[in-house]
Write a structure and sequence with these properties.
Blueprint lengths: L6 E7 L3 H14 L5 E7 L6 H8 L5 E5 L6 H11 L4 E4 L11 H9 L5 E5 L12 H14 L13 E4 L15 H8 L5 E5 L14 H28 L15
Helix pairs in contact: 1-2
Length: about 250
Amino acid sequence: MATPPELSVILPTLDEREALERLDPRLRAGTSGRACEVIVVDDASTDGTPALVESLARDGPYRLIERRNVRGLASAVVEGLRAARGRVLVVLDADGSHPPERIPALVGPIFAGSAEFVLGSRNVAGGSAPGLTIGRRAISFGAALLARPLSPVRDPMSGYFAVARPVVDRAPLAPVGYKIALEILVKCRPSPVLEVPIVFAPRVAGESKLGGGEIGAYLHHLERLYAWRIFRRGRRAGAGPTSRSGAGSGPPRP
């Protein structure tokens, strides 16, 4: 049996051939020095993305998962996380907006045992977002405010993160929309959590998928996460102390 890689990188794609061609050499440089697999989860691209991945796999660590009847960024990421074999998992966009050069900064604390989850943040010192229009900045700011009670991180909207493999197995992941990092932070409760600065660059190809449908999905996702948090707190409050005779199950596991 082959030795599992140290690192798994998950790339959800939909018609990302041009961007992925440009990203590949940067991604290889950003993961050099560690045994790595790159899992591309493709949602039935029509621009030749799957063929490109198969070509890259001839001399690189690429694996292709093709989805025919399901679409969605978050569900693609979840499928990639489930298929990953690495000790540390990294999620980033294939469009070039997330700098793969920052992968060592994200994974380093997890391999060192000083963090379970590291977020690539635009909102900490050294981070910025020249790739966002004024309108998208406003949307991101408002979305972050709505999520603030769920997580103390400065950039809960970021889609660029690294997580220790055991963390994602702590709770069922079923995000609505595209904010899988927030789903993991709320449901799996990694600790410690770190944020490292990134520069969120303009995409190198393709168009943003953010629209009214995605915003509505995000609001629905928030509703579900708040309900999850309330339910979990209710379970703890209702569990009560174990009886003197030893009957009862005691408080639920966190």
